[in-house]
Specification:
5 helices, 6 strands, globular
Length: 149
Amino acid sequence: MKLSENFTLAELTKSSTATRLGIDNSPNPEQLENLVELCHKVLQPLREAIGPINISSGLRVPALNKAIGGSTTSQHCAINGAAADIDIADNKKAFDYIKDNIEFDQLIWEFGNDKQPDWVHVSYRLDNNRGQILRAVKKNGKTAYVNFK
């Protein structure tokens, strides 16, 4: 099923963990609507601007999110919006393009260094997007999110 011109439902729901554990990572109607909006408002415009992008993580149903130790409030669960993790050769290019050109709820520079994140997390809500820009860092062995500077 196509969610936008270049993105499919399979691409936004693939998970080796779900496959390995036999978890059905199919969206309910509300989650599907949120994924469609994410594709139309964020992922498709990004692809049209910078070329093909790899989605390393999209939807996570609650059982999958729990299995990987994800936050119970993660927008990857597509309950209050939807999220995707993007991983391409130049993640900074994707991060900067989204930051400067696309409406989003959260944009996170995930780990990496000052020149390149390891991957980019972006989320979108149907309304009230916060435009929040964060950086994921390790503090005392745990992930912390700080304002991006």
